[in-house]
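in:
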């Protein structure tokens, strides 16, 4: 299986996007899992707090 997130010829955002969208049936699950893990790590590293994450979630869910 080809994994676009390992293609160093692409910028990081494109590698992530292509990896998440390469299989339509798993797209929602992959987006949710990636977002959840990213948010958790940002909080764990002290780069964001839970209130900031919840504010982003409120913004996304309201759109």
């Amino acid at each position: 299986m080809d994994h676009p997130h390992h293609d160093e010829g692409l910028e990081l955002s494109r590698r992530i996007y292509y990896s998440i969208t390469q299989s339509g049936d798993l797209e929602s699950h992959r987006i949710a899992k990636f977002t959840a893990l990213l948010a958790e790590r940002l909080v764990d590293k002290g780069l964001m707090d839970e209130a900031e994450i919840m504010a982003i979630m409120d913004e996304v869910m309201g759109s």
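note: The chain has three helices and no strands.
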